[in-house]
Amino acid sequence: MKSGALQLVGYDELCEPVTAIIAAEFQQEQPTELSLDKIKAAFVSAGLASKLSVVRTFDALASCAAKTSPELLTVVAPEISPPVIAAIEAVQSVAPCAVILITRDTKRDPIRLVTELGVNVVLNDVPDGEKLSLMSFLAVARFRQLNNLRVELVATKTQLSERKTIERAKGILMQRKSLGEADAYRAMQKMAMDRNMRLVDLSETIISAAEILK
User: Fold this and answer.
1) Interaxial angle between packed helices 199-212 and 181-194, expressed in degrees from 0 to 180 and rounded to the nearest 10
2) Taking Cα atoms as reference points, which of 98, 100, 104 lies closest to residue 81?
3) Are 147 and 64 in contact, with CB atoms under 8 Å apart?
4) Which of 44, 98, 117, 174 could disulfide-pair with 139, CB 3.0 to 4.6 Å?
5) Model confidence pLDDT, tens digit, residues 8-57
């Protein structure tokens, strides 16, 4: 195993219940403050540890996350190295979740980068159980809040896009059938109901047909 290999600790059950993963990157010589035993002890003390598994490669992190769909990822790394960044990015691509980063790295650019990738809390030491419990639920709460905002934003964009499609189709009917706006809309509603289609799907059909007949 190469120096700096990943040690992954997966927790299948947390209180409330939350599934968590600890991903800890250790070099050959590490200060005792960042020892794996201390990290595991903090999770146990916080009442967050139940079922435990350990893997030791960066590749295993994303696959473990894909299988467990964690709500919390805790990454422990002396430096925010490219492999650490890649591991966080890989997890967020397959199973987006809250992230706590414990690092001695104080450089602003790497910290800014990982926060853009979804790191919710950055600490400079392994916390005790009480603080870890607080930080864990803070990270999860932040993630859920941001995720809800993202979902709402996507829904809003979808609604606006569908409204534009419907308006475009209505305009085509108004022009082709010499209908007023209200009559064109009612005609579209009736056609959608008769065909058991969503109004936006019918609108797309009208637009496609109009493109063909140009």
Assistant:
1) 110
2) 104
3) no
4) 98
5) 444 443 444 456 676 665 554 555 566 667 777 787 787 776 655 555 66
Query: According to the model, what pLDDT value does residue 64 have?
Result: 81
H or E element, residue 15: none
The pair of three-digit structure tokens given for residue 44, joined into one six-digit string: 């146990």
Task: Describe the chain by its helix, strand, coil percentages, rounded to 5.
Answer: 55, 15, 25
Provide the percentage of residues in the chain whose pLDDT is more than 70.
78
**Rounded CA separation 214/206 (Å):** 12
Asked if 141 and 161 touch (Cβ cutoff 8 Å), the reply is no
Q: CA distances (Å), 52 to each of 10, 14, 118, in order?
A: 5, 11, 24
pTM above 0.70, yes or no: no
Residue with tokens 């473990």: 64
Residues 18 and 198: their CA atoms lie apart, in Å, by 37
Q: Check residue 13 and give its pLDDT.
A: 39
Q: Which of 135, 149, 203, 148 is nearest to 172 (CA)?
A: 203
Lookup: tokens for 15: 């209180």
Listing DSSP states for 64-119 in one string gives HHHHH--SEEEEEESS--HHHHHHHHHHHHHS--EEEEEES---HHHHHHHHHTTE
